[in-house]
């Protein structure tokens, strides 16, 4: 099975595609149960949302993984606010993967 790279017509960028391939290998090895690309939207305030790149499901926890090469200011703020408002989830930043 190959990772799904589309969501509502939106394609993953190259770094997200590469990370999805790693997640797929982790899933096949039994390290994670599953993962989903941009499936969950967290409401931070009125008309303000944060959509993590990946929702990763482990046997004992859930994590949100954000794949970044660089941070726009608003993205960094939303990420930090989401961490504060949803402390029962683990948030993990994945720096852009190089060749």
Topology (elements, then pairings):
Blueprint (H helix, E strand, L loop, with lengths): L5 E2 L2 E2 L2 H15 L5 E4 L4 E4 L2 E3 L3 E4 L4 E7 L4 H13 L4 E6 L4
Parallel strand pairs: 7-8
Antiparallel strand pairs: 1-2, 3-6, 4-5, 6-7
Brief digest:
This protein is 28% helix and 32% strand. It is of the alpha+beta class and 99 residues long.
The CATH class label is: Alpha Beta
Strand-pairing-aware structural class? alpha+beta
The DSSP helix count reads: 2
Radius of gyration: 13 Å
Shape: globular
Average pLDDT rating: 88
Give the ordered list of helices and strands: EEHEEEEEHE
Percent of residues in helices comes to 25-40%
**CATH architectural group:** 3-Layer(aba) Sandwich
CATH fold-type name: Trna Endonuclease, Chain: A, domain 1
Walk me through this protein's architecture.
The protein has 99 residues and is an alpha+beta fold. It has a single domain, classed as 3-Layer(aba) Sandwich (Trna Endonuclease, Chain: A, domain 1), CATH 3.40.1350. 28% of the residues lie in helices and 32% in strands. It has two helices and eight strands. The protein starts with 5 loop residues before the first strand and ends with a strand. The relative contact order is 0.17. The mean pLDDT is 88.
Keywords, please?
four-stranded mixed β-sheet, two-stranded antiparallel ribbon, 99 residues, 2 helices, Trna Endonuclease, Chain: A, domain 1, alpha+beta
